[in-house]
Amino acid sequence: MPQAIAPRLSLMMFLNYVVWGSWYVIIGTYLTLTLHFTGTQTGAVFGTSALACMISPFFVGLIADRYFAAERVLCALHLMGAVLLYLVSTAKSFPAVYLLMLAYCLCFFPTLALTNSLTLRNVRNPASDYPRIRLFATLGHIVINVVIGSLAMERSATPFLISAGASVVMGLYCLTLPHTPPKARGAAASWRTAIGLDALVMMKERSFAVFVIASVLACIPLTFYFSFTNAYLNASGVTNAAGKMTLGQVAEIVMMLLMPLIFRHLRLKPIMLLGLAAWSVRYAMLAFGNAGDLMWLFYGAILLHGICFDFFFMTGQLYTDQQAPQHLRGTAQGFIMFLTYGLGMFLGSLLSGWTVDFFTTPQGRDWRAFWLSSSACSFVILLLLAVFFQSRERIRSGQSVEEETAVAT
Questions:
Q1: Per-domain residue ranges for the chain?
Q2: What is the pTM (predicted TM-score) of this model?
Q3: Cβ-based burial of 327 (10 A; exposed 0-12, middle 13-18, buried ≥19)
Q4: Tens place of pLDDT for every residue, the chain, 409 residues?
Q5: CB under 8 Å to 357, separation ≥6 — which residues?
Q6: Cα(203)–Cα(212) distance, rounded to whole angstroms?
Q7: Which CATH class is domain 1-183?
Q8: Which CATH superfamily is domain 193-409 in?
Q9: Are 295 and 289 in contact (CB under 8 A)?
Q10: Do the beta carbons of residue 385 and residue 210 sit within 8 Å?
Q11: Are 244 and 238 spatial neighbours (Cβ–Cβ below 8 Å)?
Q12: 3-state secondary structure of 223
């Protein structure tokens, strides 16, 4: 790979995740504590990202891959997104915020796949080059949340304006990226292939079917964390909550580096069970922590993110790739992404908002009950996997590039 390409692609990843990280962590805080939306309304707004994840494969697979160069599509999406984010920062009513965020997410979430595609098509050795470039995405997420948290902007609309400004910079920067023409120009388009339904044949294998069901269910408590943790920490009096939450991404990076060693010593099933157990413990720690003498429980819950994400979700993506026939590997990843980050997180967004309202009384929100319900949900999913998942597989070394491209912050 030419040396000039790597820094350019790394900066692209960094900027793309600055755009995302600016608003993703704090939106629950802004909606509940500033605009005073109900939990159900906040969950619905957060669910626009999941809806976009369900629709994005159509856009990327049926349009971007066939008609327009990747860098030009990225430019257009980010410039449109900047306008929508500015409008979000001025909106006050639930209908306006919901519709604007839905429109924005439909612009932004295709960029995750497009930046991966553009990177992989412009490096010589994807297996070694891609992880080093992708690391800058996580760094972008960390940096922007440290800035937002340290400046105490979590309850204001300012993060949306920062994201809008970063979108303009990213959109213009995309025009300087290597020209990457559509890779499937002239190919037949299929909505079934775009969302990975060709991979349904893999569901005939019982353990894989159990894994898929558990993955969709696991996204429900996952969304509880992403939707309301920042709002909860702020309501509990934690200072610089967004900055402290970036410790989760740091832990994720550390665990990614340790995963090859873990794969050599543990089979697939205990790794995923440990991941689900970590989710259950994490929510219990959030339930009983406070901003005073039990602040260490909050830190522990945040730092468990590395185990929570890598042991279950990243390992599950590797398992999917390993189980898929060669010709269905890309399709299988699309299938899992559609079900988990799309359907699962959409259901989780609605249920998390409903649960917050269920545990809200005139005296305030019963956050402890909210987090304990999340902990119990994770434990039930753990039992489901423990009883019905019978595979004795190991994650084998020397996996394909698809595994690495599936990893998300």
A1: 1-183, 193-409
A2: 0.78
A3: exposed
A4: 455 888 999 999 999 999 999 998 889 899 998 999 998 999 899 889 888 888 876 666 566 667 788 889 899 999 999 999 999 999 999 999 999 999 999 999 888 878 887 887 788 776 567 778 888 888 998 899 889 988 888 889 999 999 999 999 999 999 999 888 876 565 565 666 665 666 677 788 888 899 999 989 998 888 889 888 988 998 899 988 888 998 998 898 888 788 888 888 888 899 999 999 999 999 999 999 999 999 999 999 999 998 998 888 878 877 887 777 776 665 676 677 778 888 888 898 889 889 999 998 888 889 999 999 999 999 999 999 999 988 888 877 544 434 433 433 4
A5: 38, 39, 40
A6: 8
A7: mainly alpha
A8: MFS general substrate transporter like domains (1.20.1250.20)
A9: yes
A10: yes
A11: yes
A12: helix
Domain 1-183 shares a fold with domain 193-409: yes
The CA angle 122-128-130, to the nearest 5 degrees, is: 45
Between CA 57 and CA 337 the distance in angstroms is 9
